[in-house]
Every structure is written in structure tokens, then in C-alpha cells.
Amino acid sequence: YSSAASDVYKRQFVCYIIAILILKTKLNEKRVNFMNIIPKPQKITFSGKYVPHGSVNESVDADMGKEEYSLKINRDGVFLKGGSERALHYADITYKQILREDGNMLPECEIRDKPVFSYRGFMVDVCRHFFTVEEIKKIIDAAAMLKFNYFHFHLSDDQGFRAEIKKHPELSLVGGSREGSHFGKKENDDSVYSHFYTRAQLKEIAEYCKERYIEVIPEIDIPGHASAILQAYPELSCNKEQVKAKTSQGIFKDLLCAGNPATLKLIYDILDELCDIFPGKYFHLGGDEAPKDKWKKCPKCQSKIRELGLKNEEELHCSLVNRAAEYLEKKGRRVICWNEAANGGILDKNITLAYWLDKAGVSVKRANEGCPVIIEKFKPYYADYPYGMYPLKDVYMFDPKSIKGLTETGKKSIVGVETPIWTEYITDFERLCYMCFPRWFAVADTAWNGRDEKNYREFRLAAKSYCDALRKMGVSSAPECDWDESPQKRLRETLAFADNLMTKNMLRQLLNVEE
What we know:
The protein is of the alpha/beta class and 515 residues long. 42% of the residues lie in helices and 16% in strands. The N and C termini lie far apart (95 Å).
């Protein structure tokens, strides 16, 4: 060919290559859209073709697991199959995600899926700051889309008791109020903060969860974090002095008196009413952050230690929780406690331990002995810390079975994971959603599929799509620019968080000094 003709053919050839690459990119984007499923299914087979939307067919297969499902899309229609109605519910969630991405033309595919962990939890603290029933329902809807199956409802703490107890109305009427809110340097409000849920509202939340195959786990924290209870019943403190519900964050020395028989009587009454409201199998008894200073000086507590043949106050702590757990077990309930409850070494082996920060190493020890453990490690699963401290990538990449010291038995003892949101510094629903999403997406993905190999780039694409879906439900999320910040911005955000935290009250607690 002549030189001029050769140049023309070269240009045409380059254009053809560019066109092919553009087409391939568009097809890959389409396939990526199809993969925008959170949590990602265990096995996806995609033919590469797209078919028109057909009729939806559902069936229960008794040979499949209770949470196992399959989803098949072809020219004959959409076929959902599950081992139970719950499994069909999960299949439907996955199908709706595909439908959201692809509309009338659906990917010809087959999905086989089931969760790795039986316990997939999220926790909301309503004691430091309160959220309405409608706001709680929105959070439940968002969690249900992620196939979470347990809602840990933190109802009592130093800053407020949030559940109506008919037999003891003072708990909510007196214990549900505090004289102000001074969480960090940014919040300084001296107005009375008074909120609680009525029995009818709590039952409404429980029923709302049940319809979405989520079990509510109520938490009443004992023996520590009990200032609000003691505000209503000061006679249950060791020195019987008036205790006020706390207006700031922190760890406080006001414990329920373990040597007073009336303490257990009140606890049993609370458990009776909450078990009536929440019919699930789990109940959370707290058990964390309970300094024993006042127990050491209390004649009744010391007498109880001698009476029961215990060695020290830590064993007394275990004993108190064990007696409450035994009471619940007679009602057919299983108990969960924070890991500090096991520090005394005699906590009942049937109690599930929630591992958040375990300096004593009791969680790993119990797991290696075959006792059930839930992983909700404060770093990175606590959603109340800034993204600069716990970026999205850290949450996504965290492996709950990577905790140091776990044997093969220990790894098998991990029944699931949970992501808590504590609300000392979260005053409204919009901020709550900002902190939770998209980080809860990452926890949900690990809770469901537990993969050793993770693709963060693929996950981020799915998270962006999911955030759009949440906004339509009235649930906001953090903007993408905040998910994984630069080192400089992370440092600034960490220092700002620490500075806000360090009030005079917090410094006194850290230094263990009086006013």
C-alpha cells in the first residue's frame, strides 16, 4: 500500500481497538453493578448474558439450612428457594438488590448462599442520647437489608434508664432523667434530659424486628453502669447515699450492692418484665467497667464474699451475674455479658462472652475451652469513633478470627460479630446514621461471608450503590470523601476527638482524683 493508505488503515485499526475497549468497559461496569450486593453471596455463577424480567417463584426446601438460600435467574423467570421462610426473606433481599441495579433486564445467574456466622448483630445505645421509635425503625430497616439478625438494645446505663417497668415505675420516671448533658467539651446543656420507652413502644419495636427476622436483645447493665438505677433506688447502693444519673461520659464507682438481697429482687423483677416484652432467646446482662472500690469497703458485700466462699470482689461480680443468668436460664434464655464479667474466673460456661477490649485475655481463654464468644472488638467495630481513627477499609479488612491466641477450637467458638454505636457524642439521628453507614456494611459483609480474601475496591463500589438506596429510606451516610481519609486529616481528626474527650471530669477519672 501507499504510505498515505497505510496511515488511514492504522488510524482505523486504532479506532476499532478503542471502540472494543469502551464496549468491554461498559460490559464490565454492567457486571460490577450486578455484583453490588452487600453482604456478598458465597457463590455466584454468571453466564454473562442478560434476560428480560420474568415471573418470581418461591419455594421452601427442607434439605437446605435454615438460613441457606438459592436464587436463579433465567429466561423462564426468577426462582427463589430457601431452607425456611427466613432464608426466603434473605433470598428476596438479594433479589431486590439485583433488581435495583439492573431494572428490567436481569443477569442470567445462579446464587448459592448461606451465612458463616449464626450471630450477626448491631447495637444502639439509647441511654446517653435517645432516639424515637420511628428513628429506631429506620435503623432496623437498614440493618435488615444487610441481613443482620440480632438487635442489641442498650437500655440502661449511668446516664439513663430507658425502659418502662410497671412494677418499678421509678426506674423510668426517676432513673430516666438526668440534670443535663455534658459529653465532651462541645456539648454543654444544663436542661433536664428525660426520656424512656413505654412497654407498648418496646413491644412495637420487638414486633417490627420480628417481621424482619431480627431478634431484639435487651441489655440491663449490672453491677456497674448503674447510676440511673441507683438514682431511683439509692438504698441499693453500698452506702445508701443518693446517687445521681451521670451527665457526662466515663466509668463510675457507683455499683449495685452485691450483698443486699433487694438488689437481686429488683434485677429479677426487671428481667421478668423485659422477657415478657422481648421473647427472644438472648438477654444481655452487661457486666463491664465496674470498679470495686465501694464493694471493698461495704460490710454487706464482704459478708457475701465470706458466705459464698469466694476469694475476692471479682468472684463476687461473677457470682452476681451467675445468679441472674441462672434465673434467666429457667425462662429458657441464654445470657450474653461483656468480657469483664468473666475476669473473676468463675463465670458460668454457658454464658456467651462479648469481646470488646480484653486486657485480661479471658475471651480467648474461654473460646479455646469451647465457650461461645461474639467479636465486637472496639477497634475497629465501634462505630462511634471518627472515620479518621477507624476508616472504612480497616473495618472491612478486619478478620474476627485473627485475634491473637485463638486455637482452632477457639476460632470455631466464635459464634458471630457485632457492631455497637455508643452515643455519648451523637446527639441526633443524622449523626447516628453518618457514623454507622457505610461501616455497618463492612461488618455485615464479614458477618455473612467471613472471607479470608477480600476485595476492597469491589466493596467500595457496592457501598456507594447501597448508600444511594439508604437515602431513599431516609437514612443518610457519610460522604465518600470521609470513608478513608489522608494521614494528615486522620491525625487532625484523632487529635480533635481526644481534645473534646478530655474534660475536667474525664481527667479526674483518668487520674483517679477527687474534685
